[in-house]
Amino acid sequence: MLWARAGDALTAPDGERLDEDTRSHVRFFAYWIGNSTLLINIPDDLDDDGPEYLEDLARPGPLLGELFAVFVTDEDHDAAARWLYDRQLGRHVAAPALPAGVPAWRRALASFARDLGARTLEPELLAEVDVGGLLSGSGGSGLEFVFAVFTNSLRLEPAGGALRNEAWARRRGAEAARAWLDRSYSVNPPWARWETELV
Questions:
Q1: Per-residue pLDDT at 91
Q2: Please, are residues 173 and 112 in contact by the beta-carbon 8 Å criterion?
Q3: Exposed, middle or buried: residue 143 (CB in 10 Å: 0-12, 13-18, 19+)?
Q4: Angle formed by the axes of helices 104-118 and 141-153, nearest 10°
Q5: Extended beta strands in the chain, E state
Q6: Cis amide prior to 189 (ω within 30 degrees)
Q7: pLDDT in tens, 163-183
Q8: How confident is the model at residue 3 (pLDDT cuts 50, 70, 90)?
Q9: For the chain, what is the mean pLDDT?
Q10: Cβ proximity of 177 and 170 under 8 Å
Q11: N or C: which end of the chain has fewer CB within 10 A?
Q12: Largest CA distance in the chain
């Protein structure tokens, strides 16, 4: 079952959640991307906080997915920041590929980011909004909220880590983007507290 109702409340789907540290790490990574501080700790000789990247991320394309692919490979925001820094400076960096053996939830996260950035995520929901708006004017909170909902919604099989509800988590993440960008949009079913918590 993807989700269940208890009265009028949405109850958590069956399966194991990603642990709190992982969900927190992902949402902070999204927040740092969106508030333009991902590169702030990379030493450089530019006498500033590094090259700008939000405009590139706000355009439809593979960049958001590539950035998350680097991040999920090692769950390392510093490696992802270094990759983005080099890319933005025009240094040759290979497009990342997820290695064999990467856990299913990490593949799902990279796929979600890729499709969100390419504007192919749930097109019937997101066609009427500019997803690039998650990267402008929200100070990082929009992108953080979308990835928090996605990771809070994702469930794994207790043994082996296979995904139980990737399609549902993608849908809820897309609804988070739509609701953030279109305040008149009504999420259905309404948010449950566990979906939107920022851990």
A1: 86
A2: yes
A3: buried
A4: 140
A5: 4-6, 9-11, 16-17, 155-156
A6: yes
A7: 999 999 999 999 999 999 999
A8: very low
A9: 88
A10: no
A11: N
A12: 59
